[in-house]
Design a protein that fits this description.
This protein is an alpha/beta fold. The protein is built from 10 helices and 12 strands. Keywords: Isomerase, Signal.
């Protein structure tokens, strides 16, 4: 996601060990001593996974229009971002400054389409007061988690707030040089903070030259959400997006690993390409996801 909110982790310096694996085949498991666990063959992915759409995919449109597109793709779970104009008969933008009237109308629209806002982000609130407003908004819409790239000195505070509100914080892993580009930096934030986990961005890991499967293994038990995307070139910070399954990322081992971990949550399509006509791309990605679910049953 390239719309990162103001005040993003300025000055945050974290040391990471480049140990997630690399190579020309993103997602290929090159570790012969792969993580093992109890048998998960009976784990029902269709019951525990949700296919969603990060609304940034449709950032050239209002939220009302974006919801229409998600609905057309058969997607009933979404991740909203701050700043998207609401549209329809709603004034303002999605975020902490929404009026009560706009919130009520948006809830009615969501209910009419049978769509649930599961998460929002990527956000980086400036201070505790703004974080409180973020959690209040999340509670108002029944969110499961907030996707964020918080400042290091906020870790204790947001973990406490997350516990109080019963809403997790998932740290988004944007491509380097972002402070959270490597899972080790996310694990540093998670350490001692039971309400902080990870938003696994598969495309950004590949852009950073990391093997998404090995990155998922590092974060085993801490993945709250996934950003599903594919790219055309491995190890390139600004690699162009493409339809999932048509790029360099190998997805079979990724979905296998998510099943092994018994991941429970939303897998959000975030397609940053073909902006004005990307609904067919999203529909194709939904089909790809459904094929993976069928394969894993």
């Amino acid at each position: 996601m390239k719309h990162l909110v103001k005040g993003l982790v300025a000055g945050l310096s974290l040391t990471v060990a480049v140990a997630c694996g690399s190579g020309n085949n993103a997602g290929e498991n090159t570790d012969s001593t792969s993580t093992t666990s109890a048998d998960t063959s009976s784990f029902d992915v269709s019951a525990n996974w949700k296919i969603g759409t990060q609304m940034w995919t449709f950032n050239h449109f209002t939220l009302a229009q974006a919801l229409d597109k998600a609905d057309s793709a058969g997607v009933k779970n979404v991740e909203c971002y701050w700043g998207q104009p609401l549209g329809a008969d709603m004034k303002g933008e999605f975020g902490i400054n929404m009026t009560d009237d706009a919130k009520a109308k948006l809830k009615q629209l969501l209910q009419s389409k049978g769509i649930q806002v599961v998460a929002m982000g990527v956000i980086a609130p400036a201070d505790q007061a703004e974080w409180v407003k973020a959690f209040q908004l999340a509670k108002d819409f029944g969110l499961s988690y907030i996707t964020s790239e918080p400042k290091k000195d906020q870790w204790n505070m947001i973990d406490s707030l997350a516990g109080s509100y019963g809403i997790k914080v998932a740290i988004h892993e944007h491509a380097k040089p972002n402070p959270y580009w490597h899972p080790d930096s996310v694990l540093a934030a998670i350490n001692g903070h039971p309400n902080i986990g990870a938003c696994a961005d598969l495309g950004h890991w590949a852009r950073s030259g990391l093997d998404p499967v090995e990155c998922l293994k590092k974060l085993d038990g801490h993945v709250y959400g996934v950003h599903l995307k594919d790219i055309k070139t491995f190890g390139e910070e600004h690699a162009e997006d493409t339809i999932v399954g048509k790029g360099v990322i190998k997805f079979d081992p990724i979905f296998d690993e998510l099943k092994r971990q018994q991941f429970r949550g939303m897998i959000s399509i975030e397609h940053e390409s073909n902006w004005l006509n990307n609904l067919p791309d999203v529909i194709e990605t939904v089909k790809f996801y459904n094929d993976q679910v069928t394969r894993l049953k």
